[in-house]
Every structure is written in structure tokens, then in C-alpha cells.
Specification:
By secondary structure, this protein is of the alpha/beta class. Helix content is about 50%, strand content about 10%. It has 21 helices and eleven strands. Strand 3 and strand 4 form a beta hairpin. It is globular and about 65 Å long.
Length: about 475
């Protein structure tokens, strides 16, 4: 079958949105990490922006492999975004102008130093920023060691952005704006600090310039993006009449929250949110969406469910999660300018029920000891500080304890950095003793709860009920 390309655009069905008549596009953005999430999320926003402002085409840079960029290059940068939801749709995206791999170092550096490049974005996962446990740059990371020794041929995204900034500094031109688009709390501040620290090791004067002149906005991104598969490729081929081996898919919901520092593309015109309080949006997502996700994962698995849509289709679990959000989580969140928390919660619950997205509970259930102190623990502490006992959050955490005990007793590996220790603690004689051990070792619960005897007693009761198989009664009490 013929591949999607500029030559085949005119022949696509009229119902498929595509950049058929768009004029020349300039490169204004360099993006590191052109995986599925970038192409389904940020590139879709930019593609709409290019219809009114052609200065913001994206040069896609892959740091590790050439697979994605070769697939894009073979199709003249075009690919299909399939929306998988109650109302499905497809759009051909044409936001990318160049496709660079690890071997294209000279061209990548030239683009970073070019005056027309005003924005450098990243989706490299949290690990890609080479940060230590405390959020600062890890100077012992092998890639950072390499990049400090050979700054002209970087391996890390930190090394690449610093190389581009160093070229701007040497040329006497204004710096571009680095903008991280990975879900890392305070990602702008952390990237800025890492760049300044790296640059200082190279040249103290450069470090001072990066610290004082380079602006790095924080962002929050959100949209469930399942991996591309043969079913997607077949659906796209049937709809377009041409083959597309770079197609991506996501849910209809997409959120891009950006710290408003001025001088950025007009992304608000295409649906992004510019705000002075990205942290407020991060807290809302972490506690409402992620907290509810974890709750559904553990409670749903205990009740035999497999996916989020299946779990939220359980009337008792749906009622429980809704009540937990309205009564325990939202009252403990500070107001966020521009965000209606009740409306956001409504959107979250609708997303959970999307039958076109299969989000497995066993994947969400991984790494609970690391995630729960933030997803549910912060809500727990906020309520206790206000003199309230958040019964639904307590019951949800009891479900996690029961899940860990069930897995340990069945000999099933607990996927968690502390999995082995969790399994040992979970073999205690009673759920109450398991809770006592977890609290003592600060696993899964905020450390501060150890001094709250009433709360610990309630957690023990919730875990006992959940482990007896009385979760429905426990969570609806």
C-alpha cells in the first residue's frame, strides 16, 4: 500500500483533517524525544498553531535511536493522530520540519544556535534529566560525566541544551527558552537548576549567564497515550487509504499547562493553559486523578477487575471514588486560579469510563510505596491538619495494604522498588501488624502519620476489613 506523504495528501478523504494547503513552515522549536506522547500531545497543539503562525515548526531530535525519525522522514514528517474515545476522529499532523538522530550532532547544534529557534522542548521521561534523588543534577551519572568531558558531542538532554545555550552566549544572541514537558514536579525549576549547575562546571561565566538570563517555564502535561499497534495501523490505513507506520493514538482529553513567562508561542490560542500557578494544577492532577487512579487499581484488583474502565463501571467503586474526590480530596486542595476543581473532577471520571482506552490496573498498581505518599498521603495529612478524618482515603490505603498482603501470600512478585521488603512485612500475622510495620518503616504512608494514633488505628481497621474481603462494606460505610 502507498505510504502517507506530501504527495498523497490531496487524495485523502475530505473528512480527514490534514495540512493540505498550508504554506512553508519555519523551524522555531527543537524537540528532544519525539516519541508517541510528544507526537500525540505537544505536536498536535503546534500543528493547529501553524495554521495561523508558521514560525513554530518542530525539528525532532532523537537522542538514542533513529526508528521514529526515520519513519517520520519517510512520510515527509506526516503522521496520523487517532482519537480513541466515545467520539473517535483522525487528523494528519504536519508539525515537524526536520528529523535528526544521534549522528546528526552538527546539525542539531546549528539549530540550537539559530536565531529563529526560540523554544527547546523535551519529553525524555523523568530519568532523562539525569537528576539525583534530591532533584539536583547527578554529576556521577555516566552521561553527565561524558558530557562534561566531551561537551561538543553530548549524550544527555542536559548536555545538549547546555551546548546550545553556550553557543548563544558565545554569539551574543538571546537564549532560547528550554521547556520540559515531562511530568516531573516543578520541572522548570529543576531543569533550570540542572542547566546552571552543568554550565558552571564548564565555565563559571556561562553558569552565571544561564542562571540569570535563561528562563525555564514549568509545565504540566496530561493525555493517556496507548502504544501504537497493528490494530491502529490497520484502522488508519482503512480510513485514509494509505499506510502510516508513524501513527499515534490518544484519548480525546489533552491538557498542557504552561507557566506564563511571556515570549512564548500563542499556545493559549490552540487550547493550552497559561498560568502563574502550574503547581496548583500539578497538585490537582496528583491528588484527584492519580489518587483516584491508585484507589481504583488496588480496590479494583481486589474485586477482580482488569482495567480502569471496568473498575469505574463497578457502581460501588464508582460511587466510592466520586465521594472520595468530593468529600476528602477537593476540600483539602487550595483554590487554583482558572481551574474549577469540581469540573476537573467530572472530566477525570468521564476519562476513566472511556471504553476505547484499556488502562490496566496492574500497571497503575506498580510502585505504590513510592507513589501513595503523594497521591493519597498528602490529602490524608491536609485533612488531619484541618481536624478531619478522611474516611474514604483511609479505606483506599487499607485497600493497598490488603493488595500487598494478597500478593505476598500468593507468592506473586510485588512490582515496587521496595517490593521485597513489602512482601516480608506483608507476611505479618494480622493486617494491623502489617500496617504497624509499614508505618514504622515509612513505606506507602507519609512519615508524619506515625505520631497520629487515631489515624493509625483507623488504617488498621480499614486494612483488616479489606483483607477479610469486606472492601465493599468498608468503603461504603
Amino acid at each position: 500500500m502507498t505510504r502517507l506523504s506530501r504527495a498523497t495528501l490531496a487524495g485523502l478523504p475530505a473528512a480527514i483533517s490534514a495540512p493540505r494547503t498550508r504554506g512553508p513552515v519555519a523551524t522555531g522549536i527543537v524537540h528532544f524525544g519525539p516519541g508517541a506522547f510528544h507526537r500525540a500531545h505537544q505536536a498536535a497543539y503546534i500543528d493547529r498553531l501553524l495554521d495561523q503562525d508558521p514560525r513554530w515548526g518542530i525539528a525532532a531530535v532523537s537522542l538514542r535511536s533513529r526508528g521514529t525519525i526515520e519513519a517520520l522522514a519517510e512520510q515527509d514528517g506526516l503522521y496520523t493522530l487517532a482519537i480513541r474515545d466515545l467520539e473517535s476522529s483522525m487528523r494528519v499532523i504536519g508539525a515537524h520540519t526536520e528529523f535528526l538522530g544521534p549522528e546528526d550532532a552538527s546539525r542539531t547544534l546549528a539549530l540550537l544556535a539559530a536565531p529563529d529557534t526560540r523554544l527547546v522542548t523535551t519529553t525524555v521521561t523523568e530519568k532523562g534529566y539525569c537528576l539525583a534523588a534530591d532533584g539536583t543534577l547527578d554529576f556521577d551519572h555516566p552521561d553527565i560525566v561524558h558530557d562534561l568531558a566531551r561537551p561538543a558531542v553530548p549524550r544527555s538532554v542536559i548536555g545538549w541544551i547546555a551546548a546550545g545555550l553556550a553557543a548563544c552566549h558565545a554569539n551574543g544572541t538571546a537564549p532560547f527558552v528550554p521547556m520540559p514537558c515531562d511530568n516531573l514536579a516543578s520541572n522548570g525549576a529543576k531543569l533550570h537548576a540542572a542547566l546552571a549547575a552543568f554550565a558552571t562546571r564548564l565555565d563559571p561565566a556561562l553558569g552565571d549567564w544561564v542562571a540569570g538570563e535563561v528562563r525555564v517555564p514549568s509545565t504540566m502535561v496530561d493525555s493517556i497515550t496507548p502504544a501504537s499497534d497493528d490494530a491502529l495501523y490497520a484502522d488508519v490505513a482503512a480510513a485514509l487509504g494509505v499506510e502510516d507506520r508513524a501513527a499515534v493514538q490518544r484519548e480525546a482529553f489533552a491538557q498542557w499547562v504552561i507557566e506564563d513567562i511571556g515570549g512564548l508561542p500563542d499556545l493559549a490560542a490552540v487550547g493550552a493553559t497559561l498560568t502563574k500557578d502550574v503547581g496548583g494544577y500539578e497538585r490537582a492532577k496528583l491528588r484527584i486523578l492519580n489518587g483516584a487512579h491508585s484507589t481504583l487499581a488496588y480496590a479494583g484488583l481486589l474485586r477482580g477487575h482488569i482495567s480502569v474502565a471496568e473498575a469505574i463501571g463497578d457502581p460501588q467503586l464508582a460511587r466510592f471514588v466520586d465521594t472520595m474526590i468530593r468529600e476528602d480530596i477537593i476540600p483539602a486542595l487550595p483554590p487554583v486560579p482558572g481551574l474549577d476543581l469540581q469540573t476537573y473532577a467530572d472530566a477525570v471520571l468521564r476519562r476513566f469510563a472511556n471504553p476505547a482506552i484499556v488502562h490496566r490496573l496492574d500497571q497503575i498498581a506498580q510502585d505504590g510505596s513510592q507513589k501513595l505518599p503523594y497521591r493519597l498521603g498528602d490529602t490524608l495529612l491536609a485533612n488531619r491538619a484541618a481536624g478531619r478524618m478522611p474516611d474514604h482515603v483511609v479505606a483506599a490505603l487499607g485497600g493497598w495494604v490488603a493488595f500487598v498482603m494478597q500478593r505476598a501470600r500468593a507468592g506473586i512478585r510485588i512490582i515496587d522498588p521496595a517490593g521485597d521488603r513489602l512482601a516480608e512485612l506483608a507476611m505479618a500475622e494480622t493486617p494491623a501488624r502489617v500496617v504497624a510495620g509499614l508505618v514504622a518503616e515509612k513505606l506507602g504512608f507519609p512519615p508524619a502519620i506515625g505520631s497520629d494514633a487515631e489515624l493509625v488505628a483507623q488504617l488498621k481497621t480499614a486494612a483488616e476489613a479489606a483483607f477479610r474481603g469486606e472492601l465493599p462494606r468498608a468503603i461504603l460505610a
